[in-house]
Amino acid sequence: MRSLFSILSLSTAVTATFVHPGALHTTEDFERIRTHVANADEPWNSTWTLLTSSSYAQSSYTPTPKETVYRGYNGVDSENYPSLYRDTAAAYQLAIRWLVTKDTSYADAAVNILSSWAASLTDIEGTSDKFLASGLYGYQMANAAEFMRDYSGWASDNKTLTGTMLTNVFASMNTRFLEEHNGQDYYHYYANWDLCNLASLLAIGIFTDNQTMFDYAVNYVRTGPSNGALPVFGIANYTESGSGKILTQGQEAGRDQGHATLDMMLWGVIAQQAYNQGIDLFAEYENQILNSAEYVAKYNVGSDVPYTLYQSYQGNQTLISNASCGSIRPGFELLSAHYGQLKGLNSSWTDAYRDMVNSNSTGGVEGGGGNYGTSSGGFDGLGFGTLLYRL
Ligand SMILES: *[C@@H]1O[C@H](CO)[C@@H](O)[C@H](O)[C@H]1NC(C)=O
Ligand SMILES: *[C@@H]1O[C@H](CO)[C@@H](O)[C@H](O)[C@H]1NC(C)=O
Ligand SMILES: *[C@@H]1O[C@H](CO)[C@@H](O)[C@H](O)[C@H]1NC(C)=O
Ligand SMILES: *[C@@H]1O[C@H](CO)[C@@H](O)[C@H](O)[C@H]1NC(C)=O
Ligand SMILES: *[C@@H]1O[C@H](CO)[C@@H](O)[C@H](O)[C@H]1NC(C)=O
Ligand SMILES: *[C@@H]1O[C@H](CO)[C@@H](O)[C@H](O)[C@H]1NC(C)=O
Ligand SMILES: *[C@@H]1O[C@H](CO)[C@@H](O)[C@H](O)[C@H]1NC(C)=O
Ligand SMILES: *[C@@H]1O[C@H](CO)[C@@H](O)[C@H](O)[C@H]1NC(C)=O
């Protein structure tokens, strides 16, 4: 199916069909995951234990949908977006629980969350941060929906309503941000803003079978004008002495490491979603996503990396920023699994950062929403990569 899709996608005259489920995860992935869980293989079993003990993965979970979500205090409306990231994390975790166990009580709880938000949400407001909400929670909710797509207990009207809400509320903001950047020039917003909105368009395009939306995001990654395009994101390449590896300095290296690691988590999401539809963004620009992950990972595990001056909209960044160096962020399991395990490339620094993150988490594995604090940063990534991506 994958090779057929690649051939078809060369011709715009042909309407290609999407693989389902096929955003972050495929049916084949779930066969592997179920086998590891059934055999209690490590480290999958410990990750599964962490997931099933999450308060977000319980069938009793009750969502608190809003009509308008606010992220960023605009001086009038109180921020209420934690409801959105908590409920979205719950929908995703419950969907995984259903896919592994086939117990429909988890499926019912997951679709209830999605359908309740679909019936209620009409707008995302606040400050410019509303465009972080549209990106981050857009890709996450669409992934939960994509999982539940084939659940017979999800009433088709509710499924349609969910797709309509994702398109009208999230995707329209995603596109608006990528086109207009909230009234600023292309360089104003750091890469993570584009990246989360691109991840969202890919996921919503897949869930709603919208080829136009999906293609727009893929083309933007390849040749877009701003920081979320691969060629713009890469600031400098260096050859690592000894290994001969290419390390790529990313756009947020001079800002802080919390955002530099966030970028790599989001690049993983973008590339994985495209990969499952037959487009290998991981490989493009000579594995630039790996090369940038290696650079970020190497610095964040405590080794020196070279740096080239970057002219940001806030002024010249003459040194790499060590602010939040060593920050703990889930998401590198995906990158290690793809490049190291699947492609057999040397991802040693990415692996080292992944291990550092895991060693700081319960069970020594990658957790997800709820395992990294209660604030939004702990919910930027869907996590549980040790279970979901390791081969
Ligand atoms: C699975 O992992 C959990 C948590 O680490 C552990 O308590 C349990 O004994 C493991 N199960 C098996 C069968 O090894
Ligand atoms: C649609 O979803 C809502 C919210 O979960 C639920 O109350 C309603 O029963 C669902 N409709 C059908 C037909 O299942
Ligand atoms: C598909 O996506 C495009 C681009 O985002 C959008 O303009 C269009 O309305 C979407 N189609 C549907 C049926 O939602
Ligand atoms: C880094 O290397 C890639 C792959 O060869 C290339 O496409 C890209 O332009 C290089 N980036 C810079 C900033 O030189
Ligand atoms: C920033 O760096 C560039 C390139 O080195 C230089 O031309 C420019 O004058 C610098 N700007 C400031 C404000 O230092
Ligand atoms: C960052 O660098 C400064 C100056 O070298 C140092 O004092 C500080 O401890 C470093 N912080 C981190 C998080 O590495
Ligand atoms: C992988 O790269 C690291 C340095 O980035 C190097 O130390 C290690 O020897 C390499 N591993 C292999 C198997 O080449
Ligand atoms: C990482 O682990 C250390 C030592 O156990 C702990 O002090 C620190 O708070 C942890 N950091 C995070 C972000 O979990």
How would you summarize this macromolecular structure in one to three sentences?
The protein has 391 residues and is mainly α.
Order of H and E elements: HHHEHHEHHHHHEEHHEEHHH
State the helicity in percent bands. 40-55%
**Major sheet: arrangement of strands:** 1-2
Bound molecules: 2-acetamido-2-deoxy-beta-D-glucopyranose
Quickly count the helices. 15
Rg estimate, integer Å: 20 Å
* Basic shape: globular
| Fourth CATH level, the homologous superfamily | Chondroitin AC/alginate lyase
The CATH topology is given as Glycosyltransferase
Top-tier CATH class: Mainly Alpha
| Number of DSSP-assigned strands | 6
**Level-2 CATH architecture:** Alpha/alpha barrel
Instruction: Quickly give the structural class.
Output: mainly alpha
Provide the residue-averaged pLDDT.
Answer: 95
GO molecular function, one term: lyase activity
GO cellular component, one term: periplasmic space
Pfam family, one: Alginate_lyase
InterPro entries: Alginate_lyase_dom (IPR008397), Chondroitin_lyas (IPR008929)
Could you explain the architecture of this structure?
The protein is mainly alpha-helical. 53% of the residues lie in helices and 6% in strands. The protein has a single domain, classed as Glycosyltransferase. The strands form three sheets. The chain has a two-stranded parallel ribbon with strand order 1-2. Strands 3-4 form a two-stranded antiparallel sheet. The protein has a two-stranded antiparallel ribbon with strand order 5-6. α5 crosses α6 and α11 packs antiparallel against α12. The radius of gyration is 20 Å and the shape is globular. The two termini are 21 Å apart. The relative contact order is 0.12. The N terminus is likely disordered. The site of one 2-acetamido-2-deoxy-beta-D-glucopyranose (NAG) has 6 residues, from α14.
